[in-house]
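Known limitations

Files may contain more than one protein. Parsers should not assume a single record per file. Below, a two-record file is shown to illustrate correct handling: read the sequence, read the token line, then continue until end of file.
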Amino acid sequence: MRRSSIIMLVAAVMLGLLAVLFARSFVSKSSDPAVAALRTVPVVVAQTDIPFGEKLAVEKLKVVDWPADTVPQGSFQRVADLVTDEGRISMRAIGANEIVLMSAVSDQSNRLSTTKLLAPNMRAVSVPLNEVTGVAGMVYPGDRVDVYFTRQPEEAQPYGELLAQGARVLAVGQDMNVGKDKPELVKAATIEVTPLQAQKIALAQTVGNLVLALRQFTDESRIRLETLQVTDLNDGTITRLIRRQNSGGGQAAPAAAAGPSGPATPRGPTVQVIRGSEGSTMPILGE
């Protein structure tokens, strides 16, 4: 009987010590400023993946508690703010458990608009595309492009200019889905530019041709290019020029003056030039 009492006493003491240690641990955690300062707020996240262009529904959303200090700007606290009678549409693909932001959904209307994609003080302009100017359909929403302008004036040689660098593609055709993964030939692309660039592009479309050039997405470098003319179309090697045909439609005069008997026969290497249905032999100028 005495032995069992001692065992019970020892067990009681051990349980008491464990209770004291647990209580001290709990009090210590409660007094920790970092733990005490942790405050959460309700935030709406995606219950499942929401594809681009899909109307938001209650079953696609849920509310979770999120640390108040890390809630991004433009989030929602109630599902009712997203699922309205007018409805909101996803402006991009939203992953499961991702916070739904105002920038990722349309306004309270049933239409998609590029205006929500524009950065402050920027403009959206559309440029015409074909298989060549549109990089064979490999331009996607979200890409970065440079815009080049070419023109053939009557009074000078054809020339080219660089109008805009690193412009963000907002849409190709009527597709704004940044998750687009298949190339498609479209007739126009909408890009984000400054007001001055928008003015230049609008004017350039009336007097010449525009070409888009893809660039690496993270490349934010800016380069200065001089106006490029036909005579600059070489890789730095020495080139040979062909004499222009004279206004009379006859054969171009050779380097030496023609004698009394008529135009001299071209000497040295020549090239056959075909203009329409007419052909002529032209001398090649020496280096």
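...continuing to the second record:
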Amino acid sequence: MSTPPYYQNTPPPAKSNSNGCLKAAGIGCAVVLLVGIIGTIFVAQKVKQALNDPKSGGIFGTAVNAGKTGAQGAIIRQAIVKYHDKTGAYPVTLSNLIPAYVPTVADMHAPTDANPDPKHVSWKYMRPSADAGPKTPLLKTAIVIEMGGQKAESDVVINLDGTSQSHSNAQGSYGGGQPGSSM
């Protein structure tokens, strides 16, 4: 088969210039990178805002407050254990811990407590018996999570051995009433 006449004496096709694809890909990568950087800055600002003012930090603020509440429960549990180690008995109420083991009542007010009064004890203390096992519930409080107009509560329970557990209620009704302690 011979080459048709109109193909004779025509220059070969120009070499493909792949720089166009590389430029488009480079621009696309740069845009994605820029959006990622902006997103990271936004999230970092929200986390910083939540750490400074958890009530205005949305879901980040809820996470910060939940973490602070758990840490506070661990501190109160440790104070109860120290009291027991020193006296040989568990305190009758949480007020027995003040001021030797916990400085003030305000130190027992959880950041997740719906009651804003700093003198309100957020933790319900369940005095263990002398022969209580390590998984005996010791302290309990509620963490309220609000997102998109929906409210959910989770009971946080700290056991005698320092382990914890939570029981969430997506409907938002808390069966045990507001947590607290008889002082």
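Parsers that stop after the first record will miss the second one. For reference, the second record is described as follows. The first helix runs from residue 19 to 52.
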